Model the fold of this input.
Amino acid sequence: MSGPVDLHTHTTCSDGTLTPEQLVREAKRLGLVAVGITDHDTLGGVAEAWRAGDRLGVEVVPGVEISVDPPWGDRELHLLGYYVKENEELESKLRWARGARERRNLRIIEELVGLGMDISYEEVKRLAGGDVVGRPHIARLLVEKGYVKSFEEAFLRYLARGGEAYTPKERLGAEEGITLILRSGGVPVWAHPIKSGYDPSEVEKVLEWLVSKGLRGIEVYTPDHTPKQVEHLKSLAKKRGLIITGGSDYHGPGKNSHGKLGLNLEVPYETVLNLKKG
Done:
C-alpha cells in the first residue's frame, strides 16, 4: 500500500468536533490511506473508527495522546502511544488522567465565576454532549454567553497559560507515561516537540533523556514545524534510530488553532509499517 497518512487526530471522544466515523469519512474524502485516532486519555473512539475504516477502505491506526510532566521545567509534554493494547493498568491510568482533567475543569469554572461570569460546570457538560469535557467546551460556552467573541479569544484571555483562569493539570511523569505505553505493547512517540515550547537547542537534551527511558519515535512532520525545524528533528531522529512520524493534530472543523487533516504532511505509509514493527 502507498499514499499519504495522518497519524495525529482527535474525535468527539476527547476534544474534537467530528465523531470517529465522521473523521474517517473525511480522511477518505481527502485521499488518506491511513489515519491515526489519538484522543486524549482514551481509546474510546478506536472501535467505531475501525468499523468505519473497514467499510471505507481507510486503515485506522489506534493510539492515545497522554499529557505528561517533562523531566525538568514547567512545560507540558505530550506522548502518543500507538498500537497500545487495552489492559487494566492502562485503563486505570487513563481514567485517573480523565479525572485530573475534570478536576482541572472544575477549578477553571471556579476561577471564571470568581471573575464575575455566570456559568456552571453543568452547562459545560451539556454542551459537551457526553464527550470528554475539556477547555474547548468551556471556550464554546464563553462564546455562546457573550463573554468573548471567539474561541481564540477565550483561550488567550482566560484558558491558555498566562490567562486569567488558567489552571495547570495534574499529569503522569514522562518516564511513567513511556513505561505505561511500552507495558501496554505500544510505541511511545514524542508529539509536536516545538509546539510544546522547546527550542531546537532544548529538544536534543530532552530527547536524549526520553530515549533513555524507552521513547521509540518523534513527531517530525506537523503544521507547526518550519522546514528548518523538520530537518533538525529528522537529523536527531535518524541519529538515534527513532521512528519519524507526523500528523496534523486535527481536531475537526472550527478548531482553527490546530492543523487541517492531512494538509502538507510528508508522512508515507511506510511510517505505519514502522510503528507496527515497534
User: Anything to note?
Assistant: The CA atoms of residues 14 and 132 lie 5 Å apart. The domain at 5-94+170-277 is CATH 3.20.20.140 (TIM Barrel). The chain has a mean pLDDT of 93. The longest strand covers residues 59-69.
